């Protein structure tokens, strides 16, 4: 029983460490803070009900440039087609 308990504790510690390494540590580096700033900025905010949450202050700027609109010429009604 003791061995099973210790194995479970070890698995929990490993999962917690992996989660911290993947999510918490990169979020605190200057590189990611600058990425957030360049994309429009975000901050911790309170809503009108008092809930505390992370929120983009403006719509994030995408990595890829926006595609240009394609203008299709109007369809001509009086076009005659001849079959050869």
Feature tags:
alpha+beta, 42% helix, 84 residues, 2 helices, 2 strands, two-stranded antiparallel ribbon
Layout: helices, strands, pairs:
Blueprint: H1 2-27, H2 30-38, E1 42-46, E2 52-56
Antiparallel strand pairs: 1-2
Content-based structural category: alpha+beta
Strand content: 5-15%
Query: Span between N and C termini?
Result: 88 Å
Specify the number of helices. Answer: 2
- Major sheet, described briefly? 2 strands, antiparallel
The general outline is: elongated
The secondary-structure element order is HHEE
Task: Sum this structure up briefly.
By secondary structure, this protein is an alpha+beta fold.
Structure write-up:
- It is a single chain.
- The chain has 84 residues and is α+β, with helices and mostly antiparallel strands.
- It has a domain of 55 residues.
- It has a two-stranded antiparallel sheet.
- A hairpin with a 5-residue loop joins strand 1 and strand 2.
- The chain is elongated, with a radius of gyration of 27 Å.
- The termini are far apart.
- The relative contact order is 0.07.
- The mean pLDDT is 76.
């Amino acid at each position: 029983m003791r061995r099973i308990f210790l194995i479970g504790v070890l698995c929990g510690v490993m999962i917690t460490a992996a989660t911290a390494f993947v999510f918490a540590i990169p979020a605190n580096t200057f590189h990611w803070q600058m990425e957030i700033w360049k994309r429009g900025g975000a901050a911790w905010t309170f809503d009108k009900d008092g809930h505390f949450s992370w929120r983009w202050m403006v719509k994030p700027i995408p990595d890829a440039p926006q595609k240009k609109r394609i203008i299709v010429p109007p369809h001509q009604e009086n076009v005659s087609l001849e079959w050869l």
